[in-house]
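Mods, move this if it's the wrong board.
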Amino acid sequence: MKKDPRTILGDPLITEKNHELREEQNKYVFEVARDANKMEILQAVQEIFDVRVTGVRTIRMKGKKKRMGRFEGYRASWKKAIVTLAAGDSIDLYAGA
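Not the wrong board. Structure tokens:
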């Protein structure tokens, strides 16, 4: 059963470091579903943004420990993907803004 690309690919992560990756190396960083694999992420990015993907790297981010007063808990763990696009391709992250 094929997954919907919109459920695999989450929001783009916009930070200074990710902006430098985008400008210098044509790499984009997204939050993705925790159960998504590299091939599913590759196909989702190509289908949604109509670009050619040359590589996908994934990282599992552990939830951070947080406190509220005397109560402790953890934020949810999540997964991010660094997607490398072919030369000449780009994604407009601010199109919907």
